[in-house]
Protein backbone atom coordinates (compact mmCIF):
# COMPACT_ATOMS: atom_id res chain seq x y z
CA UNK A 1 0.00 0.00 0.00
CA UNK A 2 2.63 2.53 1.04
CA UNK A 3 4.96 1.85 -1.88
CA UNK A 4 2.06 2.10 -4.30
CA UNK A 5 1.34 5.59 -2.98
CA UNK A 6 5.02 6.56 -3.04
CA UNK A 7 5.19 5.35 -6.60
CA UNK A 8 2.16 7.38 -7.66
CA UNK A 9 3.25 10.63 -6.02
CA UNK A 10 6.99 10.22 -6.35
CA UNK A 11 8.13 10.36 -2.72
CA UNK A 12 11.75 9.42 -2.09
CA UNK A 13 11.77 8.42 1.54
CA UNK A 14 9.47 8.06 4.52
CA UNK A 15 10.94 7.74 8.00
CA UNK A 16 8.95 6.48 10.98
CA UNK A 17 10.44 7.85 14.19
CA UNK A 18 9.70 6.17 17.48
CA UNK A 19 10.96 6.66 21.01
CA UNK A 20 8.96 4.90 23.68
CA UNK A 21 10.60 6.67 26.65
CA UNK A 22 9.46 10.13 25.57
CA UNK A 23 6.32 9.01 23.72
CA UNK A 24 7.53 10.12 20.29
CA UNK A 25 5.63 8.94 17.24
CA UNK A 26 6.58 10.98 14.22
CA UNK A 27 6.81 10.59 10.46
CA UNK A 28 9.23 12.48 8.24
CA UNK A 29 8.44 12.41 4.51
CA UNK A 30 11.02 13.48 1.96
CA UNK A 31 9.24 13.98 -1.32
CA UNK A 32 11.90 15.27 -3.66
CA UNK A 33 15.51 16.40 -3.29
CA UNK A 34 16.33 17.04 -6.96
CA UNK A 35 16.72 20.79 -6.38
CA UNK A 36 18.31 20.47 -2.96
CA UNK A 37 17.67 19.28 0.60
CA UNK A 38 14.01 18.83 1.49
CA UNK A 39 12.68 21.75 3.53
CA UNK A 40 9.31 21.84 5.25
CA UNK A 41 7.85 22.36 8.70
CA UNK A 42 6.95 19.94 11.46
CA UNK A 43 3.28 19.77 12.39
CA UNK A 44 2.06 18.47 15.76
CA UNK A 45 -1.50 17.26 15.68
CA UNK A 46 -3.66 14.70 17.56
CA UNK A 47 -4.33 12.62 14.45
CA UNK A 48 -7.19 10.17 14.95
CA UNK A 49 -5.33 7.38 13.17
CA UNK A 50 -1.79 6.69 12.05
CA UNK A 51 -3.12 6.52 8.50
CA UNK A 52 -4.39 10.11 8.83
CA UNK A 53 -0.92 11.21 9.96
CA UNK A 54 0.72 9.39 7.07
CA UNK A 55 -1.71 10.83 4.52
CA UNK A 56 -1.10 14.33 5.86
CA UNK A 57 2.67 14.13 5.78
CA UNK A 58 2.71 12.64 2.27
CA UNK A 59 0.36 15.33 0.96
CA UNK A 60 2.12 18.21 2.70
CA UNK A 61 5.64 17.11 1.74
CA UNK A 62 4.65 16.94 -1.91
CA UNK A 63 3.13 20.41 -1.65
CA UNK A 64 6.46 21.69 -0.35
CA UNK A 65 8.28 20.37 -3.41
CA UNK A 66 6.00 22.45 -5.64
CA UNK A 67 6.10 25.50 -3.43
CA UNK A 68 9.89 25.51 -3.11
CA UNK A 69 10.37 24.88 -6.83
CA UNK A 70 8.04 27.70 -7.90
CA UNK A 71 9.72 30.00 -5.38
CA UNK A 72 12.94 29.49 -7.34
CA UNK A 73 14.77 27.97 -4.37
CA UNK A 74 17.49 25.34 -4.57
CA UNK A 75 15.47 23.37 -2.09
CA UNK A 76 13.37 20.23 -2.30
CA UNK A 77 10.17 19.27 -0.51
CA UNK A 78 9.63 17.51 2.79
CA UNK A 79 7.50 17.66 5.89
CA UNK A 80 7.21 16.02 9.30
CA UNK A 81 4.30 15.24 11.58
CA UNK A 82 4.41 14.45 15.28
CA UNK A 83 1.37 12.54 16.49
CA UNK A 84 0.20 14.17 19.70
CA UNK A 85 -1.80 16.96 21.28
CA UNK A 86 0.21 20.21 21.32
CA UNK A 87 -1.70 21.31 24.44
CA UNK A 88 -0.77 18.21 26.48
CA UNK A 89 1.97 16.10 24.96
CA UNK A 90 4.93 18.46 24.54
CA UNK A 91 8.18 17.90 26.42
CA UNK A 92 11.87 18.63 26.08
CA UNK A 93 12.55 14.91 25.62
CA UNK A 94 10.01 14.61 22.83
CA UNK A 95 11.51 17.42 20.77
CA UNK A 96 15.09 16.41 21.44
CA UNK A 97 14.35 12.84 20.40
CA UNK A 98 12.71 14.20 17.26
CA UNK A 99 15.76 16.41 16.65
CA UNK A 100 17.98 13.32 16.77
CA UNK A 101 15.95 11.72 14.00
CA UNK A 102 16.25 14.87 11.89
CA UNK A 103 20.00 14.82 12.54
CA UNK A 104 20.20 11.18 11.48
CA UNK A 105 19.15 12.20 7.96
CA UNK A 106 22.35 14.22 7.62
CA UNK A 107 20.72 17.30 6.07
CA UNK A 108 18.49 15.57 3.53
CA UNK A 109 15.60 17.02 5.51
CA UNK A 110 15.55 20.48 7.13
CA UNK A 111 12.72 21.26 9.47
CA UNK A 112 10.87 24.41 10.57
CA UNK A 113 7.79 25.38 12.59
CA UNK A 114 4.31 24.48 11.47
CA UNK A 115 0.88 24.12 13.06
CA UNK A 116 1.13 23.18 16.75
CA UNK A 117 4.85 23.98 17.05
CA UNK A 118 6.42 27.17 18.34
CA UNK A 119 9.87 28.66 18.53
CA UNK A 120 10.43 27.23 22.04
CA UNK A 121 9.84 23.69 20.79
CA UNK A 122 12.30 24.35 17.98
CA UNK A 123 14.93 25.40 20.52
CA UNK A 124 14.91 21.79 21.79
CA UNK A 125 15.09 20.35 18.29
CA UNK A 126 17.98 22.71 17.60
CA UNK A 127 19.95 21.31 20.55
CA UNK A 128 20.17 18.01 18.69
CA UNK A 129 20.49 19.09 15.09
CA UNK A 130 21.59 22.01 12.98
CA UNK A 131 19.03 21.14 10.30
CA UNK A 132 16.38 23.51 11.60
CA UNK A 133 15.23 26.83 10.18
CA UNK A 134 13.11 29.50 11.80
CA UNK A 135 15.23 29.39 14.94
CA UNK A 136 15.23 32.38 17.24
CA UNK A 137 16.95 35.55 16.07
CA UNK A 138 19.46 35.29 18.94
CA UNK A 139 20.87 32.26 17.11
CA UNK A 140 21.05 34.11 13.80
CA UNK A 141 17.60 32.93 12.74
CA UNK A 142 15.20 34.89 10.57
CA UNK A 143 12.42 35.59 13.11
CA UNK A 144 8.73 36.06 12.31
CA UNK A 145 8.19 35.55 8.56
CA UNK A 146 4.78 37.26 8.45
CA UNK A 147 5.89 40.75 7.34
CA UNK A 148 7.86 39.12 4.53
CA UNK A 149 4.89 37.00 3.55
CA UNK A 150 2.74 40.15 3.43
CA UNK A 151 5.32 41.98 1.32
CA UNK A 152 5.59 38.94 -0.99
CA UNK A 153 1.81 38.89 -1.28
CA UNK A 154 1.96 42.51 -2.39
CA UNK A 155 4.45 41.56 -5.13
CA UNK A 156 2.10 38.79 -6.24
CA UNK A 157 -0.77 41.28 -6.26
CA UNK A 158 1.11 43.70 -8.53
CA UNK A 159 1.72 40.95 -11.08
CA UNK A 160 -1.90 39.80 -10.88
CA UNK A 161 -3.32 43.32 -11.32
CA UNK A 162 -1.04 43.74 -14.27
CA UNK A 163 -2.34 40.51 -15.77
CA UNK A 164 -6.00 41.39 -15.26
CA UNK A 165 -6.02 45.13 -15.93
CA UNK A 166 -2.70 45.89 -17.61
CA UNK A 167 -2.21 48.36 -14.77
CA UNK A 168 -0.70 47.64 -11.38
CA UNK A 169 -1.63 50.86 -9.58
CA UNK A 170 -2.80 49.28 -6.29
CA UNK A 171 -4.69 52.42 -5.22
CA UNK A 172 -6.97 52.26 -8.28
CA UNK A 173 -8.73 49.17 -6.94
CA UNK A 174 -10.73 48.06 -3.91
CA UNK A 175 -9.97 45.05 -1.71
CA UNK A 176 -11.86 42.60 0.50
CA UNK A 177 -9.36 41.25 3.03
CA UNK A 178 -10.45 38.26 5.09
CA UNK A 179 -8.34 37.74 8.21
CA UNK A 180 -6.29 40.39 10.02
CA UNK A 181 -3.71 38.20 11.71
CA UNK A 182 0.05 38.38 11.36
CA UNK A 183 -0.03 38.53 7.58
CA UNK A 184 -3.44 40.09 6.92
CA UNK A 185 -2.90 43.21 9.06
CA UNK A 186 0.50 43.86 7.52
CA UNK A 187 -1.00 43.41 4.06
CA UNK A 188 -3.75 45.94 4.89
CA UNK A 189 -1.05 48.37 5.96
CA UNK A 190 0.73 47.94 2.61
CA UNK A 191 -2.56 48.45 0.74
CA UNK A 192 -3.29 51.59 2.73
CA UNK A 193 0.16 53.01 1.98
CA UNK A 194 -0.74 52.69 -1.70
CA UNK A 195 -4.05 54.51 -1.26
CA UNK A 196 -6.42 51.55 -1.65
CA UNK A 197 -10.05 51.27 -0.56
CA UNK A 198 -10.16 48.30 1.85
CA UNK A 199 -12.97 46.18 3.33
CA UNK A 200 -11.95 43.94 6.22
CA UNK A 201 -13.31 41.20 8.42
CA UNK A 202 -12.01 39.00 11.25
CA UNK A 203 -13.54 36.96 14.06
CA UNK A 204 -11.37 39.01 16.41
CA UNK A 205 -13.12 42.38 16.85
CA UNK A 206 -10.02 44.08 18.30
CA UNK A 207 -8.15 43.41 15.06
CA UNK A 208 -11.04 44.78 13.01
CA UNK A 209 -11.09 47.94 15.17
CA UNK A 210 -7.36 48.37 14.62
CA UNK A 211 -7.68 48.07 10.85
CA UNK A 212 -10.47 50.65 10.89
CA UNK A 213 -8.70 53.10 13.21
CA UNK A 214 -5.15 52.80 11.90
CA UNK A 215 -5.68 52.07 8.23
CA UNK A 216 -9.08 53.58 7.48
CA UNK A 217 -10.53 50.22 6.44
CA UNK A 218 -14.28 49.60 6.31
CA UNK A 219 -15.46 46.75 8.57
CA UNK A 220 -17.90 44.19 7.19
CA UNK A 221 -19.44 41.03 8.68
CA UNK A 222 -17.73 37.65 8.52
CA UNK A 223 -20.03 36.37 5.82
CA UNK A 224 -20.54 39.74 4.14
CA UNK A 225 -16.93 39.76 2.93
CA UNK A 226 -18.01 37.57 -0.02
CA UNK A 227 -20.67 40.08 -1.12
CA UNK A 228 -18.84 43.39 -0.98
CA UNK A 229 -18.21 45.33 -4.11
CA UNK A 230 -14.43 44.88 -4.24
CA UNK A 231 -12.16 44.33 -7.24
CA UNK A 232 -9.87 41.96 -5.34
CA UNK A 233 -10.70 39.23 -2.86
CA UNK A 234 -7.78 38.58 -0.56
CA UNK A 235 -8.11 35.51 1.67
CA UNK A 236 -5.65 35.80 4.57
CA UNK A 237 -7.29 33.50 7.11
CA UNK A 238 -8.55 30.05 6.25
CA UNK A 239 -8.33 27.64 3.36
CA UNK A 240 -11.23 26.56 1.14
CA UNK A 241 -13.04 29.90 1.10
CA UNK A 242 -13.35 29.96 -2.68
CA UNK A 243 -16.02 27.31 -3.09
CA UNK A 244 -19.42 26.52 -4.65
CA UNK A 245 -21.23 28.75 -2.15
CA UNK A 246 -18.97 31.78 -2.26
CA UNK A 247 -17.97 31.88 -5.93
CA UNK A 248 -21.37 33.01 -7.27
CA UNK A 249 -21.34 35.81 -4.68
CA UNK A 250 -17.85 37.17 -5.32
CA UNK A 251 -17.75 40.37 -7.38
CA UNK A 252 -13.97 40.42 -7.45
CA UNK A 253 -12.13 39.85 -10.72
CA UNK A 254 -8.86 39.07 -8.96
CA UNK A 255 -8.15 36.63 -6.10
CA UNK A 256 -4.84 37.17 -4.39
CA UNK A 257 -4.10 36.50 -0.73
CA UNK A 258 -1.79 34.71 1.68
CA UNK A 259 -4.00 31.86 2.94
CA UNK A 260 -3.05 28.29 2.08
CA UNK A 261 -5.31 26.05 -0.04
CA UNK A 262 -7.74 28.80 -1.03
CA UNK A 263 -9.61 26.77 -3.64
CA UNK A 264 -12.04 24.18 -2.26
CA UNK A 265 -11.23 21.91 -5.21
CA UNK A 266 -9.82 21.93 -8.74
CA UNK A 267 -13.24 22.35 -10.37
CA UNK A 268 -13.49 25.73 -8.64
CA UNK A 269 -10.16 26.69 -10.17
CA UNK A 270 -11.47 25.77 -13.62
CA UNK A 271 -14.64 27.77 -12.99
CA UNK A 272 -12.65 30.87 -12.01
CA UNK A 273 -10.95 30.82 -15.38
CA UNK A 274 -14.29 30.50 -17.17
CA UNK A 275 -15.60 33.52 -15.27
CA UNK A 276 -12.57 35.63 -16.17
CA UNK A 277 -11.39 35.85 -12.58
CA UNK A 278 -7.60 35.84 -12.32
CA UNK A 279 -6.52 33.60 -9.48
CA UNK A 280 -3.00 34.08 -8.13
CA UNK A 281 -2.01 30.56 -6.99
CA UNK A 282 -1.74 30.64 -3.20
CA UNK A 283 1.49 28.74 -2.77
CA UNK A 284 3.30 31.00 -5.25
CA UNK A 285 1.95 34.16 -3.59
CA UNK A 286 2.63 33.16 0.02
CA UNK A 287 6.13 31.77 -0.50
CA UNK A 288 7.63 34.66 1.47
CA UNK A 289 7.77 32.59 4.64
CA UNK A 290 9.70 29.71 3.15
CA UNK A 291 11.95 32.06 1.16
CA UNK A 292 12.79 33.84 4.38
CA UNK A 293 13.74 30.73 6.35
CA UNK A 294 15.63 29.25 3.39
CA UNK A 295 18.06 32.15 3.63
CA UNK A 296 19.19 30.87 7.02
CA UNK A 297 20.97 28.06 5.21
CA UNK A 298 23.71 30.27 3.88
CA UNK A 299 23.57 33.16 6.29
CA UNK A 300 20.41 35.18 6.93
CA UNK A 301 20.33 38.70 5.65
CA UNK A 302 17.27 40.98 5.67
CA UNK A 303 18.20 42.82 2.48
CA UNK A 304 18.50 39.57 0.58
CA UNK A 305 15.17 38.49 2.01
CA UNK A 306 13.41 41.61 0.72
CA UNK A 307 15.05 41.19 -2.64
CA UNK A 308 13.93 37.61 -2.79
CA UNK A 309 10.32 38.57 -2.01
CA UNK A 310 10.31 40.74 -5.13
CA UNK A 311 10.96 37.64 -7.27
CA UNK A 312 7.39 36.59 -6.44
CA UNK A 313 6.28 39.17 -9.01
CA UNK A 314 8.23 37.34 -11.73
CA UNK A 315 7.11 33.91 -10.55
CA UNK A 316 3.49 34.99 -10.90
CA UNK A 317 4.12 36.54 -14.30
CA UNK A 318 5.69 33.27 -15.44
CA UNK A 319 2.68 31.31 -14.17
CA UNK A 320 0.31 33.55 -16.14
CA UNK A 321 2.45 33.08 -19.24
CA UNK A 322 2.30 29.29 -18.88
CA UNK A 323 -1.47 29.46 -18.34
CA UNK A 324 -1.82 31.39 -21.62
CA UNK A 325 0.74 29.26 -23.46
CA UNK A 326 -0.94 25.96 -22.55
CA UNK A 327 -4.54 27.17 -22.23
CA UNK A 328 -4.82 25.96 -18.63
CA UNK A 329 -6.06 27.51 -15.37
CA UNK A 330 -3.47 29.30 -13.27
CA UNK A 331 -3.54 26.75 -10.43
CA UNK A 332 -2.41 24.10 -12.94
CA UNK A 333 0.11 26.45 -14.51
CA UNK A 334 1.81 26.86 -11.10
CA UNK A 335 2.26 23.09 -10.83
CA UNK A 336 3.59 22.99 -14.36
CA UNK A 337 6.12 25.70 -13.63
CA UNK A 338 7.36 23.64 -10.66
CA UNK A 339 7.58 20.44 -12.71
CA UNK A 340 9.40 22.17 -15.57
CA UNK A 341 11.91 23.72 -13.22
CA UNK A 342 12.64 20.43 -11.44
CA UNK A 343 13.07 18.73 -14.82
CA UNK A 344 15.44 21.34 -16.27
CA UNK A 345 17.50 22.07 -13.18
CA UNK A 346 17.59 18.40 -12.23
CA UNK A 347 19.28 17.63 -15.55
CA UNK A 348 22.03 20.13 -14.82
CA UNK A 349 23.43 17.53 -12.41
CA UNK A 350 24.56 20.03 -9.85
CA UNK A 351 27.59 19.14 -7.78
CA UNK A 352 26.69 17.43 -4.52
CA UNK A 353 27.84 20.51 -2.62
CA UNK A 354 24.49 22.07 -3.49
CA UNK A 355 22.75 19.34 -1.54
CA UNK A 356 24.72 19.92 1.63
CA UNK A 357 23.28 22.69 3.77
CA UNK A 358 25.86 25.02 5.25
CA UNK A 359 24.08 27.10 7.88
CA UNK A 360 26.49 29.98 8.12
CA UNK A 361 26.38 32.73 10.70
CA UNK A 362 24.27 30.90 13.23
CA UNK A 363 25.17 30.20 16.83
CA UNK A 364 23.96 27.13 18.65
CA UNK A 365 23.51 26.95 22.40
CA UNK A 366 22.34 29.71 24.73
P1 LIG B 1 -2.92 34.24 11.99
O1 LIG B 1 -3.42 33.10 12.79
O2 LIG B 1 -2.00 35.24 12.62
O3 LIG B 1 -4.16 35.06 11.38
C1 LIG B 1 -5.32 34.48 10.90
C2 LIG B 1 -6.46 35.46 11.20
O4 LIG B 1 -7.65 34.98 10.59
C3 LIG B 1 -6.75 35.59 12.70
O5 LIG B 1 -6.77 36.95 13.07
C4 LIG B 1 -8.13 34.95 12.84
O6 LIG B 1 -8.92 35.56 13.86
C5 LIG B 1 -8.72 35.19 11.47
N1 LIG B 1 -9.83 34.29 11.13
C6 LIG B 1 -9.97 32.98 11.43
N2 LIG B 1 -11.12 32.53 10.94
C7 LIG B 1 -11.71 33.55 10.29
C8 LIG B 1 -12.92 33.70 9.57
N3 LIG B 1 -13.78 32.69 9.43
N4 LIG B 1 -13.21 34.91 9.02
C9 LIG B 1 -12.37 35.95 9.19
N5 LIG B 1 -11.22 35.86 9.87
C10 LIG B 1 -10.89 34.68 10.42
O7 LIG B 1 -2.24 33.59 10.71
P2 LIG B 1 -1.22 34.27 9.69
O8 LIG B 1 0.15 33.92 10.08
O9 LIG B 1 -1.60 35.71 9.48
O10 LIG B 1 -1.55 33.46 8.36
C11 LIG B 1 -2.74 33.71 7.60
C12 LIG B 1 -2.85 32.69 6.47
O11 LIG B 1 -1.69 32.76 5.65
C13 LIG B 1 -2.93 31.24 6.93
O12 LIG B 1 -3.74 30.53 6.03
C14 LIG B 1 -1.50 30.76 6.82
O13 LIG B 1 -1.43 29.37 6.63
C15 LIG B 1 -1.04 31.50 5.59
N6 LIG B 1 0.41 31.69 5.52
C16 LIG B 1 1.06 32.43 6.46
C17 LIG B 1 2.44 32.61 6.37
C18 LIG B 1 3.18 33.43 7.39
O14 LIG B 1 4.31 33.84 7.12
N7 LIG B 1 2.60 33.71 8.55
C19 LIG B 1 3.17 32.06 5.30
C20 LIG B 1 2.49 31.32 4.33
C21 LIG B 1 1.09 31.16 4.44
Determine the mean pLDDT: 94
Helical residues, percent: 40-55%
| Unreliable residue stretches | none
Give the oligomeric state of the chains in this entry, treating copies of one chain as homo and distinct chains as hetero. single chain
The ordered H/E elements are: HEEEEHEHEHHEHEHEEEHEHHHH
Summarize the structure.
The protein is of the alpha/beta class and 366 residues long. Helices cover 43% and strands 14% of the residues.
Tags for this entry?
366 residues, alpha/beta, Rossmann fold, 2 domains, six-stranded parallel beta sheet, 12 helices, 43% helix, NAD, Glu/Leu/Phe/Val/Trp_DH
Describe the model.
With 366 residues, the chain is an alpha/beta fold. The protein has two domains: 2-65 and 75-132, 3-Layer(aba) Sandwich (Rossmann fold); 146-340, 3-Layer(aba) Sandwich (Rossmann fold), CATH 3.40.50.720. It contains twelve helices and twelve strands. It has helices at 2-9, 50-70, 92-104, 119-128, 146-165, 182-193, 205-215, 266-274, 282-285, 288-294, 302-326, 330-347; strands spanning 13-19, 24-32, 38-39, 42-45, 76-83, 109-110, 174-178, 197-201, 218-219, 232-235, 254-255, 278-279. Strands 1, 2, 3, 4, 5 and 6 form a six-stranded mixed β-sheet that branches. The chain has a six-stranded parallel β-sheet with strand order 9-8-7-10-11-12, sandwiched between helices. Strand 1 and strand 2 (24-32) form a beta hairpin. The protein starts with a helix and ends in a 19-residue tail after the last helix. The structure holds nicotinamide-adenine-dinucleotide. Nicotinamide-adenine-dinucleotide binds at residues 145-146, 149, 178-184, 201-204, 207, 222, 236-238, 258-260, 286, 289.
Amino acid sequence: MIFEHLDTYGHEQVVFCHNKDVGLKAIIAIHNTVLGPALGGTRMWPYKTEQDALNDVLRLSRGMTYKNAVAGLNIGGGKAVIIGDPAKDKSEGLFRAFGQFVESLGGRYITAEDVGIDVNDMEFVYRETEYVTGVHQVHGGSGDPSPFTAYGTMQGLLATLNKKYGNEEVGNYSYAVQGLGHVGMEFVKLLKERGAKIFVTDINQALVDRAVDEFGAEAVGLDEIYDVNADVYSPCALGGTVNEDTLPRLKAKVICGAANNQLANNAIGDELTKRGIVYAPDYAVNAGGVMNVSLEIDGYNRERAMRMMRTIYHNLTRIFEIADRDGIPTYKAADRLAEERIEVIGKLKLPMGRGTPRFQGRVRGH
